[in-house]
Amino acid sequence: MNLLREIKQNTQKLKQKILIIYLALKDKRTPIFAKIIIGLTISYALSPIDLIPDFIPVLGFIDDLIILPLMIFISYKLIPNEILEDCRIKVHTDFNMNKKLGVFAEIIIILIWITLAGIILFKVFKLELPVNRTIDS
Fold first, then answer.
1. Distance in angstroms between the alpha carbons of the first and the last residue of the chain
2. Which of 25, 47, 95, 112 has the smallest number of Cβ neighbours within 10 A?
């Protein structure tokens, strides 16, 4: 039970860190290079596609255990301290923002899955999109 509680706490900390770097991404004071790295980190965190697929035993979870935390760590290091502190305060004080971002992330993930499913269906069944054709007289 202690291990499960520790995993939940670490997951919550990871979510908070992603929210913090998301706010830093939106902050005008954040340097452009940091914004690029943060954008990649958030995209990777929200993406249903992993660098190493989860179905590969042991190796499949390396991205969740090593790559994503490493990307978050690098993002943190690139954000100036005053911006990082401002973002931490916002995350800890604004519960509604946390909820809105969670819903936004869920919508993005669902849209990505629907798009991928559509692409797979079109490729597997070799479907073609309807094209408006005009009849030349």
1. 77
2. 95
pTM above 0.85, yes or no: no
Rounded Cα distance, 83 and 50, in Å = 29
Q: What are 69-108's pLDDT values in tens digits?
A: 899 999 999 999 999 999 999 887 875 665 666 677 677 7
Q: Which amino acid is at 95?
A: F
Q: How many CB atoms lie within 10 A of CB 31?
A: 13
Structure tokens at 86: 């401002």
How many secondary structure helices (H) and strands (E) does the chain include? 6, 0
Radius of gyration of the chain (CA): 20
Predicted confidence (pLDDT) at residue 3 exceeds the cutoff of 80: no
Top pLDDT among 46 and 27 is at 27
Q: Shortest CA distance to 88 belongs to which of 5, 1, 16?
A: 16
Q: Count CA atoms within 13 Å of residue 26 on its CB side.
A: 9
Which token pair is 129?
Answer: 């999109």
Q: How far apart are CA 61 and CA 47, in angstroms?
A: 14
